[in-house]
């Protein structure tokens, strides 16, 4: 093998597809997304894949790279290539559409089921709520807030893999932010939904989600927070 | 390169995995298809807290299966000490001893891994998940040690 | 319901941790010079403390184990939910009956 070449094995087709190998030049600095784009430009114009921002903001470029779900735009080839080979597959735990593209609808559904919609407890006539940025609840919510719905954690969670009714880390992480949000009018409902069938009781603290989240959120901590509330009951003071 | 390529070609065995129990599957990724590959080699599973979770689960299942038999054994004492002694004589056979040794070990393991889960879920301090992953190896060692003590005395 | 089961399982786990610790210590202590019925029964018979200890043990384990097994079955088998629930109820009853029978036998 030419040392200046990189073998990229890319999933082609839908469920009954297979891995196809392409050769692209190995460069000093390239991300997995760069490589996929190069493959599409040079070898496989019909290759389907998703991306938008290319800088880790939108969360649409998540794929399985050498067995782990990642943002391809923020993953350097050098860090993940296994003996000069890169294997790129669609995210697991989600229905496939074509090549590297998955249908994210089931993932978005889990957010709804986990009580994700925000529901204000004030009318537009009232002044905006004053939230103490240093209150414990706010700091707790802030720590889990930056999620961009990329589904990396959902795809990496074995419990989701085993039990498709499980809501998964991202949705429950969202529920945790709402339960800690004093402006949310339905904290109790959100909490109840997060603990209904398919909810927190299914998480076995494998911690895959936290290990994989590209922005280092800790969904497993958020779920643990909800579990603690199951013992103590929801704090009704605010 | 060779190694990776060889692994890739194993994809042909993909359909085999449809016949695997659910926990051994990995939903369409090539890694699952290498069905003899131990859990530890799976890139999503080769970390301590996953190994602890699986160890906790397998030990829990083994204990659950064993417990009714344990109760049955003790229940033989209903027929007086002779009943229990007869049953205990049965447990004197080396095979049963080995099984018991395994169970004592698994009970210790389930206890230690269980404490870890409880600490993960119900306590909260900086980096606790990372720190608690250091609990895994000592737990394994301790339960093997407990098993050895049991074995040494039991024979 | 899920939430209640979760709480029950974790609370029983906390108590079991203590009981299992004592139980393990006792096992290691008791097997030092072999097990005999006389020895076991000598320790337990007529002793309210051990009777309570093992009674509680049985109760907790009959709560803890079936709830745990339920999750395993849900995740690792494709059985319908109602079947799994029945199996676990059955298992809980089995543990209760055999467990209390055993406690009754040795005290
Ligand atoms: C030493 C006391 C014990 C502690 C601290 C303990 C702790 C736990 C915890 C925290 C779980 C939940 C694991 C999870 O969902 O991730 C669990 C699961 C389980 N336990 Fe225990 N347990 C103890 C004793 C027992 C005993 C004596 C048995 C068997 C008769 C048992 C059988 C199970 C089973 C079958 C599971 C389900 C495993 C799973 O979901 O992965 N446990 N245990
Ligand atoms: S900690 Fe819970 S949610 Fe996160 S990967 Fe593990 S089981 Fe899934
Ligand atoms: S928690 Fe992290 S990994 Fe999961 S969806 Fe949000 S950003 Fe992605
Ligand atoms: S393309 Fe937007 S996060 Fe990767």
Question: Could you give the topology of this structure?
Answer:
The complex is a heterotrimer of chains A (238), B (155) and C (107).
Chain A: E1 5-12, E2 18-25, H1 32-42, E3 62-65, E4 68-71, H2 77-80, E5 85-89, E6 96-98, E7 101-102, H3 105-113, H4 136-143, H5 152-156, H6 158-162, H7 169-179, H8 187-194, H9 208-212, H10 219-232
Parallel strand pairs in A: 1-5
Antiparallel strand pairs in A: 1-2, 3-4, 3-5, 6-7
Chain B: H1 2-9, H2 48-75, H3 80-90, H4 94-122, H5 128-132, H6 136-154
Helix pairs in contact in B: 2-4, 4-6
Chain C: H1 2-30, H2 37-44, H3 48-76, H4 81-106
Describe what you observe in this structure.
- The complex is a heterotrimer of chains A (238), B (155) and C (107).
- In chain A, 34% of the residues lie in helices and 14% in strands.
- Chain A has 238 residues and is α+β, with helices and mostly antiparallel strands.
- In chain A, a hairpin with a 2-residue loop joins strand 6 and strand 7 (101-102).
- In chain A, helix 7 (169-179) crosses helix 10.
- With 155 residues, chain B is mainly alpha-helical.
- In chain B, helix 2 (48-75) crosses helix 4 (94-122) and helix 4 packs antiparallel against helix 6 (136-154).
- Chain B starts with a helix and ends with a helix.
- Chain C is mostly helical.
- Chain C is built from four helices and no strands.
- Chain C has helices at 2-30, 37-44, 48-76, 81-106.
- Chain C is elongated, with a radius of gyration of 16 Å.
- The N and C termini of chain C lie far apart (36 Å).
- In chain C, 28% of the residues are buried.
- The model of chain C has no long low-confidence stretch (mean pLDDT 87).
- The chains are: A alpha+beta (238), B mainly alpha (155), C mainly alpha (107).
- At the B-C interface, helix 2, helix 3, helix 4 and helix 6 of B face helix 1, helix 2, helix 3 and helix 4 of C.
- One iron/sulfur cluster (SF4) binds at residues 157, 159, 169, 203-209, 219-220, 223 of chain A.
